[in-house]
Amino acid sequence: MKPNFIKLRTEPPVLALLKLLRSRFLLPEETNDYYFSKLKGYEGECYLDSLLATLTSNSLILCDLLLEQNNTTFQIDTLLLSQKTIYLFEVKNFEGDYYIKNGDWFRKTTGKAITNPFHQLKRCETLLRSLLHARNIKMAIEPYLVFTNPLFTLYQTPLDLPAFFPGQLNYLLKKLNQAPSELNGSHQQLTQFLLSRHVIDSPYDRLPSYKYEELQKGVTCRMCQSFKVAISKYTTKCSACGHTEENKLCILQAAKDLKLLFPDMVLTVKAIERWCDYLYSRKAIWSVLETNYQLIHKGKNSYYL
Ligand SMILES: [Zn+2]
């Protein structure tokens, strides 16, 4: 008896892209802020996953679902299906002091309003209910805000706010462990239905515009994104954090990064050589591309796929 993660969480592509971009390009302040809030959110979600993984009762869990209903997309951070109930978790990794006034949410230090998490949760619940209703699926939905950061305080919280605060996460796990947990084929079907409705959005729409020429060329450390690397015959060592990696893996990663940042770019030995600022030999790059990609023969314009 244990939770079954039907859909695992992976690093959001927009986060991977921004991490790459910010090491090679000065991001606008607004985008930088977006990167850090996205990163923080992702860390909070992963933390909740790690807690849910310790559940002892049967449940099916779907992470990071993007669904569409009535031409509206909505994102579910975590959905947990037990025997009788669908638990909907909107995870917030807010840090610092916040308050609620007349139903709106504010940061205490700046007095600036934030997107109302409770409204986000209600919107999710309504759209999910409508999606399930259209399939004639009648299951109880219990939506909750889950706050994961121990440094978070919310003043003037209404008593009926459906939320679990950092000090109450054990209580949440206890509650889930005590929920009836006889699962059958219909539960599996429901998760498969939701999975089939998962849509994939393009991360590129949420990036600032950037050009190849504007990005710094060179080899960055996988761990700390520093350009301060020393390359020897077989390995690349970061002098900032000490991380060492095989050259083969660094070259492969460089090819992947380049393709992720510029999906239309044609992958050639020359392109990787230039992207890595000529730090690896042509022979080393050629060997990595030969092993990991398929060569498309077009004479002088051959490239790898
Ligand atoms: Zn490093």
Keywords:
305 residues; alpha/beta; 2 domains; six-stranded mixed beta sheet; four-stranded mixed beta sheet; 36% helix; 24% strand; binds zinc ion
Describe the model.
The protein is α/β, with parallel strands linked by helices. It has two domains: 3-204, no CATH class; 217-304, no CATH class. It has helices at residues 13-24, 29-52, 117-134, 169-178, 185-196, 247-261, 269-275, 282-292; strands at residues 3-7, 59-69, 72-81, 85-92, 96-101, 104-107, 113-114, 140-147, 152-155, 163-164, 229-231, 235-238, 244-246, 295-296, 303-304. The strands form four sheets. Strands 1-2-3-4-8-10 form a six-stranded mixed beta sheet, with helices on both faces. Helix 1 (13-24) packs across helix 2, helix 6 packs across helix 8 (282-292) and helix 7 (269-275) packs across helix 8. The radius of gyration is 23 Å and the shape is globular. It starts with a strand and ends with a strand. The mean pLDDT is 95. Bound molecules: zinc ion. Residues 221, 223-224, 226, 238, 240-241, 243 line the site of zinc ion.
General form: globular
The overall strand count is: 15
Mean pLDDT: 95
Helix/strand order, N-terminal first: EHHEEEEEEHEEEHHEEEHHHEE
**Major sheet: order of its strands?**
1-2-3-4-8-10
Which class do the helix and strand fractions yield?
alpha/beta
The residue fraction in helices comes out at 25-40%
Write the layout of secondary structure elements.
Blueprint: E1 3-7, H1 13-24, H2 29-52, E2 59-69, E3 72-81, E4 85-92, E5 96-101, E6 104-107, E7 113-114, H3 117-134, E8 140-147, E9 152-155, E10 163-164, H4 169-178, H5 185-196, E11 229-231, E12 235-238, E13 244-246, H6 247-261, H7 269-275, H8 282-292, E14 295-296, E15 303-304
Parallel strand pairs: 1-2, 4-8, 5-9, 8-10
Antiparallel strand pairs: 2-3, 3-4, 5-6, 6-7, 11-12, 12-13, 14-15
Helix pairs in contact: 1-2, 6-8, 7-8
The chain binds zinc ion.
Zinc ion is lined by residues 221, 223-224, 226, 238, 240-241, 243.
